[in-house]
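Sample entry (229 residues):
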Amino acid sequence: MTSDRILRKIERCLALSRSANEHEAGIALRQAQRLMVDHGINELDVAASTIGRATTQAAAGRKPPKWLDRLAALVNAAFGTLAVYEARPTFTGWEGFYAFLGEQSHARIAAYAFEVLQRQLVTDRRAFLSGMSKRAKRITKIRRSDAFASAWVLGAYEHIVPVEIATDTVTAIDHYKQRYYTTLKEMNAIDRGQQAADHKAMSRGFEAGRRARLHSSVAQDERRALSHG
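Predicted structure, serialized as tokens:
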């Protein structure tokens, strides 16, 4: 993998190549081109170096439930990122993490937003689960809680403004993903299905999701992109 130090140097040279001083710009451009040739770096490598990666722990193990994957998709839509699920083995099992890839600031805020929304979603799902009839079978409780959670995400979706990602950024993210995740595989999230009898759970989940809130410390511009009331 190319040294980050070399990539940073090329970025600085390319920035200087846009200088109003033609002599200075020409020198900087030639230096950037020489470094790229010497180190076998192409334009995509340089573009990918502008992409950031921010991780946050997921409330899941080796595989996430479908509703949690949908929450990651919501955050992607709001902040122009790509989420990758990472499962890491521990002494007691597996821990899950979501890594958000995107422009540096967007990736950090996306990870933070996911953490905040996940905390609310898990709390609401747990409250719904504990309030179910004790006579209900465990499998029924889990399925309806999942239906509640999926609808919660739909409720939160009602208030986001999806951002349009520039083609160059999409290409840079994809290139970064290929470089960083050399053995990435497609994952099927856990889906326990839904039944007609789960409609009440979904209705309650949707209303709960519409009441979701982000912490005030999220940047004002980004809060407008994911506004909850």
